[in-house]
Amino acid sequence: MRLDKYLKVSRIIKRRTVANDACSGGRVNLNGRTAKPGADVKAGDVLEIRFGNRIGKYRILDVKETVSKEGAAELYEVLEEDDSIKAERG
To answer: In terms of CATH, what superfamily is 3-89?
Structure first.
């Protein structure tokens, strides 16, 4: 699955256009490398996303095309996250 779509489906970033902009702007790393919006993601990959001066780090547990709001959190494991990022994701 494309990285920008995964970020939207998992609800790490709520809109795909915002996810696409974050990837295009070099604010998303996939397994330690700067990632483009079309990069393929799979279970076991590690994402690092910079939200301003805050950083969120996540391990991908599963990749699904669609998922309920409640099931979105089961797609990834939070490795590191600022409290203000948690509040934004809801």
So the answer is: RNA-binding S4 domain (3.10.290.10)
